[in-house]
Design goal:
- The two termini are 20 Å apart.
- The longest helix is centred in the C-terminal third of the chain and has 34 residues, at 300-333.
- The strands form 3 sheets. The chain has a 7-stranded mixed beta sheet, sandwiched between helices. A 3-stranded mixed beta sheet has the order 5-12-7. Strands 9-10 form a two-stranded antiparallel sheet.
- It has helices spanning 3-30, 61-69, 85-92, 110-120, 139-147, 171-193, 210-213, 216-223, 237-246, 271-297, 300-333, and strands at 48-53, 75-81, 100-105, 125-129, 134-135, 152-157, 159-161, 205-209, 226-227, 231-232, 251-255, 262-264.
- Helix 1 packs antiparallel against helix 11 and helix 10 packs across helix 11.
- It is of the alpha/beta class and 347 residues long.
- The chain is built from 11 helices and 12 strands.
């Protein structure tokens, strides 16, 4: 085995990975930061309905709802389960805001709760938000401006992690924080080179045009989503929503601006690892479905979008795996001194 070629392969692979990382970070810095607020803009926060699914167990839930109200949305629809309905109402009632409405479904199901909220929406736009998310005062305004572009069907924004204990990040939370920083950069990379498109419209906080989702065919597809026709999918609703939007010709936007920042939490223990595995599985399924649609549709721009998603999300990880694999091969099969290429060691 020619070790020189393997060493050269490792070196050039690292150079390629460095170039890709630099291009991604360049796009993160160059992507437009937010939007100017215009007095004559046609879209404003009052046209947004926030849909929040919850079981009422989030410690800072009321504080999070207050941060949503600060952005002046048209309505907040909180969807819980029947057995938690009175508990959630008791939590929200002291706020005394008529824009907040609480409803329920029979059993805990993210997709069923989402459908319930969408059915009850009466505004032109809606925002799907997690119950552990806190919004910046300008987040809804920035989202409204992005949705004023008539070709945009979905919008997501920059994110960061806050410590669950209010003081410092645990080791697992640090992993989550780094992952979100990476996601912000990758979203920017894709948006910069693929006409504003994003990796996915994040389940933590994303906005949509109501008319795209408020259809019976959407509700049916959301509730009857199967992988390879056999396995009923109950997670990954953010990837499903993203595919639904872009496959119908709508564009998406990523807001890379601190004024649109959302703050969230991640699991503070090893449960975060299980979350990452589930997210990775759902993401892979979504990408395979979009790639299949791109091939069948014959849409060149959609094919480019799918290629860029795969490149952004997997290229660096694959390069690291290949790098490590080559080094393992070199270590196992070298059998001679590194300074004595081509000749076996003297016994």
């Amino acid at each position: 085995m020619n070790l020189i070629l393997l060493y050269q392969a490792v070196r050039w692979l690292r150079y390629l990975r460095l170039v890709l990382d630099l291009v991604q970070y360049y796009s993160y810095l160059r992507l437009d930061h937010g939007h100017d607020i215009r007095k004559d803009q046609e879209t404003y926060p009052g046209q947004l309905t926030i849909i929040a699914q919850t079981l009422g167990d989030q410690p800072d839930y009321v504080a999070n709802v207050i941060s949503w109200l600060a952005g002046d949305p048209g309505a907040i629809l909180i969807v819980t389960v029947a057995e938690k309905l009175e508990k959630v109402r008791a939590m929200i009632e002291p706020l005394g805001d008529p824009r907040i409405r609480v409803s329920s479904v029979k059993q805990a199901s993210a997709r069923e709760q989402l459908s319930e909220g969408i059915r009850r929406t009466t505004t032109p736009f809606l925002i799907v938000i997690d119950d552990d998310v806190s919004l910046s005062p300008q987040t809804l305004q920035q989202i409204a401006v992005a949705l004023s572009d008539p070709v945009v069907g979905g919008v997501t924004t920059i994110q960061q992690v806050c410590p669950s204990n209010g003081r410092f990040l645990t080791t697992w939370e640090s992993f989550g924080a780094l992952n979100l920083v990476r996601r912000n950069i990758l979203h920017s990379f894709l948006a910069y080179f693929a006409n504003g498109h994003v990796l996915n419209l994040s389940g933590r906080t994303s906005a949509y045009r109501t008319k795209i989702l408020q259809r019976e065919e959407f509700y049916f597809a959301l509730q009857n989503d199967y992988w390879r026709g056999r396995h009923h999918i109950r997670t990954g609703d953010d990837n499903f929503l993203t595919s639904w939007v872009v496959q119908r010709g709508w564009q998406t936007r990523f807001i890379n601006d601190q004024n649109a920042l959302i703050t969230t939490t991640v699991a503070a223990d090893s449960a975060y690892y299980k979350q990452v595995l589930r997210w990775s599985r759902d993401t892979a399924r979504g990408y395979l479905r979009d790639s299949s649609f791109a091939v069948l549709s014959g849409d060149a721009s959609f094919r480019f979008y799918c290629f860029m998603k795969i490149l952004a999300n997997y290229a660096s990880d694959l390069a690291v795996i290949v790098d490590v694999g080559i080094l393992v091969i070199v270590t196992v099969f070298r059998g001679y001194d590194a300074d004595d290429y081509g000749r076996p060691p003297q016994l």
